[in-house]
Amino acid sequence: MAANVLPFLMAAALLVIFSFDKLIYFVVFFAPLSVELSDIMPGFGFNMFLPTEPVLAGILIIFLLKIVHERSFDRKILLHPVSLAIYLNLFWILITSITSSMPMVSIKFLLARLWFLAAFYFLMAKIFSDGQKIEKYVWLYLAGFLIVIFYSIYRHWGYGLLDKQAAHYVVTPFYNDHTSYGAALAMYLPFAAWFALSKRYSVKIRTWSTVVFGILFIAFILSYSRAAWLSIMIALTVLAVIKLRIRFKTIAITSVIILSFLFSFQNEIVMYLERNSDESSSNLTEHFSSMTNISSDASNLERLNRWGSALRMFNERPVFGYGPGTYMFQYAKYQLKKDRTIISTNAGDGGNAHSEYLGPLSESGVGGLVTFLLIIITVMYTAINTWSRLTDYRLRGIILAALIGLVTYYIHGLLNNFLDTDKLSVPFWGFTAMIVAIDIYSRKLLSKPQSRV
To answer: 357 lies in a domain?
Structure first.
């Protein structure tokens, strides 16, 4: 028996050592299809996504061993401004893991962030370094994602497609709820649109991409994720700003005016929002309008409860926070009685901070928020500069699709946080790797001497 299994184990080991790309592609395909260990075997003291996270842990170990042994990796990737911003964020996560109120929880958080970055950012930036294989990365996720979409729509059909409540659980066990599902759909819609519209691709690919875009869009609507809908609307505004080449000075002045207006009339705005009584419903207009209902919508009120708890945790420990990944274990005592809702729990076991920004603020202090914002700013600056510099039509489209996809998550991150999952880490860090790789590749092309005719 052992003799029969040994060749397969050796083949697997060789695959890990010499074919990182195939192993990562395996993870990318299965990320939408992965399920949590707690769903299969409840009662364990830890949790992870299967089959992806054990593979990612192996990739991280072999990646570090190869770097130590070979003492080489692409320096342009390692020293890129985006990478430097990532190092700062990782360094601060490490420091706050040491000072954490729950060190083991924080170390697990740090390890998960490391294996997501090793596979989807550093190794993929290297694989994308010649400007190729980007479409393959996108389509592999979409291939697995389409299986989940058909499964979810089929289940939703049984309850009636207009049943908004069903949207919350028809995506299980693959996605925890409709919000993470909607976030992933929003991130991939720009790529599906680019593949469908670009003349750079064959008629066959454009036709297939149009069909996929249609499926994604239908699933996007049926997700009933208000945060995802809002993120797409704002991302399209950002796209218009980029395409129209509106100056940064104009954007900055406009932003200051809007923020000043909001600050000056904050009491009036709050009173207006409190008068909104639209509840989450199957009526799409009312459902979207309910996003600003802070008087009776339980979902919105619970989100405010979590945000308030995060801010009070930050006030308690403004420098180091409670430790990465610890919010869900610590926020219970920071809930105010007046903020609790019908879906609040006294034990505070309802999940995370529902914010990709307030979460790090409460868990890693001001440094956690600042270093994460630095990553976002550096990525956006790199993407826009590279897009402006590029002459290659295909790469211009890819970098714009990657940026708009990321912008949807930057906006969604105001209302939810999912970067501790493989499902959103694949596009988030993968799209970031595309931008960095294309930036480095385009500079390499510019540095080549032009041949004389």
So the answer is: yes
Could you give the angle at the alpha carbon of 32 between the alpha carbons of 286 and 434, nearest 5°? Answer: 95
More confident residue, 72 or 405: 405
- The domain tally of the chain equals 1
Task: Output the CA–CA distances (angstroms, integers) from residue 452 to 400, 419, 444, 448, 449, in the order listed.
Answer: 32, 49, 19, 12, 9
Q: Are residues 35 and 173 in contact, defined by beta-carbon separation less than 8 angstroms? A: yes
Residue 203: which domain range? 75-245+353-447
Bridge partners, residue 50, by sequence: 35
pLDDT at 296 over 60: no
Interior angle at CA 61, CA 91 and CA 112, nearest 5:
50
As a whole number, the mean pLDDT across the chain is 85
Cα Rg of the chain (Å, integer): 22
Query: CA-to-CA distance for 223 and 183, rounded, in angstroms?
Result: 9
Q: Cα–chain-centroid distance for residue 309?
A: 23
Any domain includes 380: yes
Convert the pLDDT of each residue in 218-240 to its tens digit. 999 999 988 899 999 999 999 99
Residue at 315 is within a domain: no
